[in-house]
Specification:
- The chain is mostly beta strands.
- Helix content is about 0%, strand content about 55%.
- The strands form two sheets. Strands 2, 4, 5, 6, 9, 10 and 11 form a seven-stranded mixed sheet that branches. Strands 1-3-8-7 form a four-stranded antiparallel sheet, with no helix packed on it.
- A hairpin with a 4-residue loop joins strand 7 and strand 8.
- It is globular and about 40 Å long.
Length: about 120
């Protein structure tokens, strides 16, 4: 059973950089045929795909967030990380990490972590 767990600060000040980590257990982030994604849901809005890192290490980022977003991984810890710079209150959301089967769908999600951007 694969499990994903998000971790990071619940409160970030405007203009700072948000950093979240997804710790994966029950499966390796280097196993073929998976993307490891970041998705967020602002209050009252739908899910927004932010980006992903492929099992090979290739990263993909939403064009709307590309200038502020970085995704990386630590294979020794089986973790991957999201960094979002220059945050504003509009970045307030529940942030999820999730696994995607290539050419298929999401199959495992973390429980989500609330991040609030406020001074």
């Amino acid at each position: 059973q694969v499990q994903l767990q998000e971790s990071g600060p619940g409160l970030v000040k405007p203009s700072q950089t948000l950093s979240l980590t997804c710790t994966v257990s029950g499966g390796s982030i280097t196993t073929n045929n998976y993307y490891w994604s970041w998705i967020r849901q602002p209050p009252g809005k739908g899910l927004e795909w932010m980006g992903a890192i492929r099992y090979s290490g290739t990263t993909y980022v939403s064009p709307s967030l590309k200038s502020r977003t970085s995704i990386s991984r630590d294979t020794s810890k089986n973790q991957y990380t999201l960094q979002l710079s220059s945050v504003t209150p509009e970045d307030t959301a529940v942030y999820y990490c999730a696994r995607v089967v290539i050419y298929s769908d999401y199959d495992y999600w973390g429980q989500g972590t609330q991040v609030t951007v406020a001074s």
